[in-house]
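TEACHING EXERCISE
Course module: macromolecular assemblies
Task: Read the component lines below, then compare them to the predicted structure of the full complex.
Student: A.B.
Group: 4
Components provided:
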Amino acid sequence: MNASPAFEISKQPARPLAAQQPCRIALLGFGTVGRAVATILQGSSFPQLRLEFIYNRRVDRKRVAWVSPQVHWTDDIEQVLASDADVLLELAGGIEPAYSWAKRALLLGKSVVTANKKLIAAHGPELLELARRQGCRLEFGAAVAGGVPVLCGVSPGLSGDRLLQLCGILNGTCNYILHAMESRGVTLQAALKEAQQRGYAEAEPSDDVDGLDARAKLAILVRTGFHLQVDPEQIAAQSVLDVRPADFRYARELGCTIRQVARAELKSGTLLAEVAAALVSVNSPLGAARNNQNVLVTTGKYGGETVFAGAGAGGAPTAVAVVSDLLAVAESRPVASRGPALVAVPVSNDFRCRHYVRVVPAEKTDAIASLRRALTAGGVGLRGLLHHPDPHDRRPSLALAVEECSTQLVEKALRQAHDAGLLAEPPLRMSIVPSS
Amino acid sequence: MNASPAFEISKQPARPLAAQQPCRIALLGFGTVGRAVATILQGSSFPQLRLEFIYNRRVDRKRVAWVSPQVHWTDDIEQVLASDADVLLELAGGIEPAYSWAKRALLLGKSVVTANKKLIAAHGPELLELARRQGCRLEFGAAVAGGVPVLCGVSPGLSGDRLLQLCGILNGTCNYILHAMESRGVTLQAALKEAQQRGYAEAEPSDDVDGLDARAKLAILVRTGFHLQVDPEQIAAQSVLDVRPADFRYARELGCTIRQVARAELKSGTLLAEVAAALVSVNSPLGAARNNQNVLVTTGKYGGETVFAGAGAGGAPTAVAVVSDLLAVAESRPVASRGPALVAVPVSNDFRCRHYVRVVPAEKTDAIASLRRALTAGGVGLRGLLHHPDPHDRRPSLALAVEECSTQLVEKALRQAHDAGLLAEPPLRMSIVPSS
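Instructor-supplied answer key:
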């Protein structure tokens, strides 16, 4: 399904840095990642990188003594843009003003390195094209999976394959929460609170738990690996907030655990893509992801499955990805080609797979039997029925393992059963992600 | 321990290919990988790559009908070198004549792509320097771990970290054999024969089982990840041929299985490096490697552990790595820098770790107690004694788990015990690789 790529060699090579002259860096945003990058650059490992500016709003709150006195601290972005810095390192996050800064920097002939998945998911292709026209670089290796080099692993690493599937754990916060539920049996709310206390989750965690963070990363991966144009908003995202301790006990009976899974697959010209809680085999690379780890499993037509796993979150691992990008820019390898053109396709989340369904039957005679009849009538094949009363549940729940079928089919049958009064509360459906 | 890198920007950019003109490829060696590369290039995915020549000795034996009639088949290397091919794709293997061909191609201004670990382990730095001077590319992503993009994962992917350890399974044949012994209890000889029948192992398998193949790959990884100059011959390699079914039963009692492990670590200015059969936790990424998979686990000062895993052998996965390299050359990103200079260091295999020792005590009274005394007197702390009689063994063996200590200490104590007549046959020592 790779589009026929139209390669073109740029006539405008990136400005070569004079030999011996270090690459001058302006760091925007002195938060967790910014501090970790400054720490690495303070060491002696990378003399070809020189930190010249640290920009932050109300910069005086941020100033620290361990940064070299040669670094200029400023809260004036105009000073940074007017300076002779070679690279704008954008670690402020969010779309604005990051987008305006990146655009202005590129127009001024400065390269841009960023860890900002929102910015790249929203404006990546446009900024890449601008960078190419300006003979500059735009690098964003830290935007997906933090310290795990998945973007360069996919391209150039696997560019010679035809990728068929991407399946991964791209949000460290959700993995921390779900792994805590799995390993210690705590509720989601307790695990979330713990993640917040440890600084793994924001006070406002909806970007993480609702899947918005992971779907921005999945959109970037789909562009890189499939050469398809996709916006994050086209990818269905389902919150993990509905997962309960009982779901882990049911999952275990199926040899599975539960993870927030981001996946994409090309099927008959449609891009299947979603971010949702899903069952994964405990023996799979996704099931093995602990704490705030990230994992990506790619499936290629020729190379089969390739796994990338490691520290997907945290200041120091993300800083590694940022510094690797800075080195690539300092070595001034020009972006010689626009790469394959991106192609637009329909996007759906109607994956065909086995499913897990947790229901609370209505309190009436024969509700379970009626439910089974209703599902079977809707074309949904049942594999098994699990029953594990949960002390946290007010009403007893049941779990159903569903034969491989279309996601929409299961959801429709469940909606009809709910509308017919067979369920005491909305059901929870999760995909059972196949593992090889 | 990274050396202070001396970066220098090349004044000689790679010759840009004219826009729209595909990159012309001369393929040398039409074996398993060569056929798989030709298959991928026959498809429509990569119009920027055009196969122009297929060279092989006695080429008429090799000719197949499915290759486009525009491809020239030849057994005359001079014709290939004199042609207008942009890239020499060397898939013949071995050091000569591959080395002469690569050198001549670079001197003629042609880029070189190769999957040849022996060639790169022996002559990589020299050929890279020649390529840089000629403004050409030398790419060898397929030389380590086949289809798993570990070289580009390490650099540029993790170039911003300071790598402390590399630990991997780099030989698919040995992994096939050891995984068959683990999962089906067969002897090493039976597993090797099976691997040969399935085409996974050569008729003459010593490069694989003696660790020579894996240590060539480890030498390339050490240069790429640690920026250290190391020759394969400096790395200790121990055969896996001594591993018996009983060792897997003992290993299981320790929560471990057995793999051929290639590892390297910097310790006080010395490079610890070896390739040997070793015990690894069944729950670790190395323990999870099945059949002919390859795995690399890197440990970085900032990024912690990163795992790369996938199809390390076989025609199609290796061809993916080759085609990815061809695309990189076709996109004509010049190698702008010579990268950090390589530094020479002492090399040793005296790792400090826990050890597994399998012995057959001599047939005399009190041999076991004497052995324990001898080892303890030699400074070797014993953790436990395992006994699992093996029907394949003529004499009953014992396994000892040894506390963390220097490898040389254990080997010296065992040698002394053997010299003192306490052992009926030479002992087998394997490291127990720590897992986080």
